[in-house]
Design brief:
This is Acyl-CoA reductase. Helices cover 33% and strands 20% of the residues. The protein is α/β, with parallel strands linked by helices and 492 residues long.
């Protein structure tokens, strides 16, 4: 009997590579898969010369939008064999469940809507800077600024197939040369998108400036060969602490690291949100959206929730009521957004169950069936294992003052959900000083504009382009060779 394994295709600049296959083990014992031997294709992954990017500048921004819109139309999963295959394999490799993956794949074409992309690019960079030199007079000179595409290696995370699509999109609109190292827990989706591009327009500049491949992170023989300034100018790295830290060994003059490293997120809830049964119900429904959607796999998912209900008996009782309501609200969300986790982490389950024997200090709501749990602290201390909260497991913590919350916000805090709105002005200002990077209304962590604007305290789209300056003297400004002593000015 012949045993077949799924293939993570390499797609290199308009060519699909499916020979010289070697086996790789899936993450955490998941499905093994085949991929082209990265050492055999290593020389074909990077662009041979930066001068070959010139063809991208024969395209107008409207040309790029037209290409992406056509691609989006071809990414309807029910009409795309490559994506259907990728989705089927991803059921086994992805950290989330089948209904959530179905939702991700169903929504992918909407990412390629022309007006959505135009708005995103204008908001993040400014279309004019990608199309021409934007000039103005300053300090006696005419200064032009333009955003140029860069040769960028993207090491994408695997907690959702949209990240590969987003990377392809960002590379196209910035006229970048894009290399995507696909993750072991989603080695199929980005290759499926790239194969669609090859079928659609194999010789188009955007297709020719995309390389997608899998190699095992930490393969120093390959990485030391590829991660060189004559091959790439930037590395955009998503992922866990170890993988991002590993990449830093290759950073040198000529290579910039754009690090979207691991983050944690939290929520801050004021006492007014617990003043009545109706208020608790609304707060609970909002909170469930922020910790349960996507089964808590995203950095933006709330894991700890500080509630300014006070640490006295009355406040803790209100907090318990919020915990029970939030647990119940989790089950009212549609399966496209959240389900019982694929497999509840065994160590997390042990830690949660241990708290059931500390009834004076914790109330645990749910969790017996691996469906997720709400842990209510009776004191202002978070659980010892708070960094490992996952699988729809959240810790509610009572506090007396906002300052107690701010003391635990740091540079690892990505998203902060806030409720009620009266807290927004003070929380976003003080929270930003402490290290928080995104502030949203409770319940809208995942129901916003999408991945636009700053992320993790930086602006990824502005970072993946090169900002080039062109200067010429304003009319009448003398050169040093013709100026007298009084006319010479040195402008810093």
């Amino acid at each position: 009997m012949t045993i077949t394994r799924p293939i993570s295709y390499a797609v290199l600049r308009g060519q699909v590579i499916e020979n010289d296959l070697v086996e790789f083990g899936g993450r955490g014992g998941d499905m093994a898969f085949l991929a082209p031997d990265p050492h055999r294709i290593a020389d074909r992954i990077p662009l041979a010369s930066p001068r070959l990017m010139e063809d991208l500048y024969t395209l107008s921004f409207e040309d790029i939008l037209d290409y992406l819109a056509e691609l989006g139309g071809r990414l309807e999963v029910d009409r795309n064999d490559y994506l259907r295959e990728a989705r089927e394999y991803s059921y086994a490799t992805a950290p989330t469940t089948r209904p959530i993956m179905d939702h991700f794949f169903h929504d992918m074409p909407f990412m390629f809507d022309k007006e959505r992309i135009r708005g995103m690019v204008d908001f993040n960079i400014g279309v004019d800077y990608l199309e021409r030199w934007v000039e103005q007079e300053i300090n006696g000179s005419k200064v032009g600024i333009r955003a140029y595409g860069a040769r960028t290696l993207h090491i994408v995370a695997g907690n959702g197939p949209v990240l590969g699509a987003l990377t392809v999109l960002r590379g196209a609109v910035t006229r970048g040369d894009t290399i995507v190292k696909v993750p072991s827990n989603d080695p199929f989706t980005t290759g499926a998108i790239a194969r669609t591009m090859v079928d659609m327009a194999p010789d188009h500049p955007i297709t020719r400036h995309l390389a997608v491949a899998y190699w095992r992170g930490g393969d120093e023989a390959l990485e030391s060969r590829l991660y060189q300034p004559h091959h790439i100018e930037k590395i955009c790295a998503w992922g866990g602490f170890a993988s991002v830290k590993h990449v830093t060994k290759y950073i040198q003059p000529g290579i910039e690291l754009i690090s979207l490293d691991p983050k944690r997120s939290a929520s801050i809830i004021g006492a007014e949100a617990l003043e009545s049964e109706a208020a608790i119900t609304e707060t609970a429904r909002r909170l469930a959206c922020d910790f349960a959607v996507g089964n808590q796999t995203a950095c933006a998912s709330a894991r700890i929730v500080y509630v300014m209900c006070g640490t006295g008996d009355e406040g803790v009782e209100k907090l318990k009521a919020l915990g029970r309501a939030a647990y119940a609200a989790m089950f009212t969300l549609p399966e496209a957004l959240t389900t019982k986790p694929k497999r509840y982490d065994a160590d997390l389950r042990t830690s949660v169950d241990a708290l059931r024997f500390s009834e004076d200090f914790y109330t645990v709501v749910g969790g017996e069936e691996g469906e997720g749990a709400v842990i209510v602290s009776h004191t202002s201390d978070r659980v010892d294992f708070w960094e490992y909260l996952a699988d729809r497991t959240v810790n509610l913590i009572p506090v007396d003052t906002l300052d107690e919350v701010l003391d635990v916000i740091d540079a690892y805090t990505q998203t902060v959900g806030i409720w009620p709105e009266s807290l927004r002005a003070v929380v976003r200002h003080k929270g930003a000083l402490h290290g928080g990077q995104r502030f949203v209304q409770l319940g809208y962590v995942f129901n916003g504009p999408g991945l636009v604007g700053p992320q993790d305290g930086i602006e990824p789209m502005r970072r993946i382009v090169k900002w080039i300056i062109s200067e010429e003297p304003s009319e009448g400004r003398p050169g040093f060779w013709e100026a007298n002593e009084e006319e010479i000015r040195v402008v810093a």
